[in-house]
Amino acid sequence: MVAEKGTISINTENIFPIIKKFLYSDHEIFLRELVSNAVDATQKLKKLASMGEFNGELGDLTVKVSVDKEAKTITISDKGIGMSAEEIKKYINQIAFSGAKEFLEKYKDTQDTNQIIGQFGLGFYSAFMVAQNVEIITKSFRDEPAARWICDGSTEFEITEAEKADRGTDIILHIAPDSEEFLENFRINQILEKYAKFLPVEIEFDGKVINNPNPIWTKSPAELTEEDYKNFYKELYPFSEEPLFWIHLNVDYPFNLTGVLYFPKIKKDFQLNREKVQLYSRQVFITDDVKDVVPEFLQMLHGVIDSPDIPLNVSRSYLQADSNVKKINSHITKKVADKLQELFRQDRKGFEEKWESVGIFVKYGIISDDKFYDRAKEFTLLKNVDSQYFTLDEYREKVQANQHDKDDKAVFLYANDANQQDAFITSAKKRGYDVLIMDSPLDAHFINAIESKLEKVTFKRVDSDSIEKLIDKGLAMESVLNDEEKKQVEELFKEVAGANTVQLESLPTDEMPVTIIQPEFMRRWKDMSRISGQNDMFGMMPMGNNVVINTNHALIDKLLKTTDADAQKQLAKQLYDLALLAQGMLSGSDLTRFVERTVAAL
Q1: Residue 528 annotated as binding site
Q2: Is the pLDDT of residue 159 over 60?
Q3: Does residue 99 have a known ligand-binding role?
Q4: Pairing mode, if any, of strands 389-391 and 381-383?
Q5: Same domain, residue pair 469 and 388
């Protein structure tokens, strides 16, 4: 071969700075691209062998990555199809002419071409983000001389004949001074662990194979056991608890989609922790930011999705929205809903046991996706303070007779802290009312969503009003106090209640003498602001309370009959503090003083 010099065929000499600075989001991507190209070349050879176009021995096809710290080089070696000098000129010197794309076009009517990774022909040039010189030594699988290509990142290259006995390609990066971090073994291992963990050809680094070329999502569900799924979960998330269950995605029309999505156990104090679902394209890791592909409410799932039909930009780092992305998003939503419905129907008790975690996804889905509600309403559960579960229809039927107000609205009472609101729950139960427990961080939003979907249903927190007004049946009890006595009681409690609003009500004698409530809309808005992380005008306002005085209670009568002004004020203060205690609003020194006063009174 005669030595040859030439100029890379590009439209502008500024292409390399653009590639180095802007095309790729992170310099570490160079290794993903070069290893992917090596896998690509290997897969092409396997394809040609399966078609009878290559009759030689395949041999060991492991792709090898090595670092020479002293020579300041990184080498990526494969035993794939290799290139001739003419192919180097065609595929390397003409930027954006993708060999993989041409190969796919040539063999588009045959099977199993999905493993060919490259799309744009630009991946090789990511090497210049970290290398001051890049060298290729390659020998084609055809009987042609080996060739050597070298370029220093300018538009000039040199191509000569080379000594290479075996088929395949070595890419040698002479690392630039500002990129010597990549000469550290731990750094290379970190990058390979991230991007090459499931590449379909074995990748060897530092003497060991670092990837699993046959992850479970590439297999048929019929081949896999429950243990296989659990082991793969441990491989992905070694420090997580066992998942609740999983969904195996396996679609080939009208788009190609495979993967396994796991439902993790979620605690009540969960964070909206996304970046747990990993997106791959033909087993190459792309991103864990899957907001367009996976519906928002399912981004807390764990697992992997893989699709060659999700369009990527030329850096393979960012998704580009199109109709396939929307179809995949809808398909995932449907598969999740179908799985949940199947679990609910087949094993309701088991489904109820998982509800604490599953309910987060279902509620989030109902809040964020109207179509999901249509699928989920059958298996959306409500839990009462006695740990009984009901579907929405079952619960409405349960409270139909007793929990309707004067406007014929079904009133769903709920508590968000059963211990703190125990006095109010007890009061409701004395009336034969049922009380739900709604203590998830999402419940304020969920309640709003359900109220908008169910006709003539309203939710009220059990401590948001007096017992008579929680479910207002239009019946008013008479007060045993006259107007003058009412005014006296009101003035007395205004003095001890500070800025809170005092309201007098005629309640049954067995209800508490003083109750502290906060209107439902104020409580709910406060809860919604907290989960949204917003300090809007309601979040920043002091949340005033209403102090409800039961004018029919014997202690209010005793208060009026107390002639000593100081003693009268002290009793009023005790009753007010008792109400604070019932709401969990009394603590520290105030609680100590309350106990001391109570002991003294005894």
Answers
A1: no
A2: yes
A3: yes
A4: antiparallel
A5: yes
Q: Describe the crossing of helices 185-195 and 29-50 by its angle, rounded to 10 degrees.
A: 60
Cα dihedral value 205, 211, 46, 77, nearest 10? -20
In the predicted structure, residue 557 carries a pLDDT above the cut 70: yes
Sequence-separated contacts (24+) of 364-369 with Cβ below 8 Å: 364/296, 364/297, 364/300, 364/442, 365/295, 365/297, 365/298, 365/333, 366/446, 366/449, 366/450, 367/297, 367/442, 367/445, 367/446, 367/449, 368/295, 368/296, 368/297, 369/295, 369/296, 369/297, 369/333
Q: Was 340 annotated as part of a binding site?
A: no
Is 300 annotated as contributing to ligand binding? no
Asked which of 130-144, 273-287, 450-464, 514-528 is least confident by mean pLDDT, the reply is: 514-528
Would you say 98 is a known binding-site residue?
yes
Would you say 33 is a known binding-site residue?
A: yes
Residue 366 falls inside a structural domain: no
Q: Is residue 97 situated within a structural domain?
A: yes
Whether residue 49 is found in the same domain as residue 193: yes
Asked if 148 and 14 sit in the same domain, the reply is: yes
404 with 342, same domain? no
Say what percent of the chain tops pLDDT 70: 80
**486/469 same-domain check:** no
- The number of folded domains in the chain is 4
Q: Is 224 found in the same domain as 184? A: no
* 120 among annotated binding-site residues: yes
CATH code of the domain in which 527 resides: 1.20.120.790
- Do 284 and 408 fall into the same domain? no
| Residue 530 belongs to domain spanning | 477-602
Question: Where is the domain boundary, 324, 346, 368?
Answer: 346
* pLDDT category of residue 115 using cuts at 50, 70 and 90: very low
In-domain check, residue 394: yes
Tokens of residue 322, six digits? 């199109």
- To the question of whether residue 30 is assigned a binding role by annotation, the answer is no
Boundary-marking domain end, from 322, 346, 370: 346
124 is in an annotated binding site: yes
- Choose from 14-18, 216-220, 322-326, 559-563 the range with maximum mean pLDDT: 216-220
Query: Does 355 fall in a domain?
Result: no
Tell me phi and psi for residue 94, to 5 degrees.
-100, 95
Tokens representing residue 388 in the block: 């009984």
Strand positions, DSSP E, 506-588 = 514-517, 546-550
Residues 140 and 168 in one domain: yes
Asked if residues 212 and 218 have their Cβ atoms less than 8 Å apart, the reply is no
Pull the structure tokens for residue 467.
């017992």
- Print burial letters for 257-269: b (CB count within 10 Å at least 16), e (below 16): bbbbbbbbebeee
What does DSSP say about strands 156-161 and 63-68: parallel, antiparallel, or unpaired? unpaired
Q: Is 105 annotated as a binding residue?
A: no
The verdict on whether residue 498 carries a ligand-binding annotation is no
575 is in an annotated binding site: no
> Does 169 count as an annotated binding residue?
yes
pLDDT tens per residue across span 443-495: 988 999 999 999 999 999 998 877 777 888 766 667 778 888 888 888 888 87
Return phi, psi of residue 228, to 5°. Answer: -60, -45
Tens-place pLDDT, residues 175-185: 999 999 999 99
To the question of whether residue 365 is assigned a binding role by annotation, the answer is no
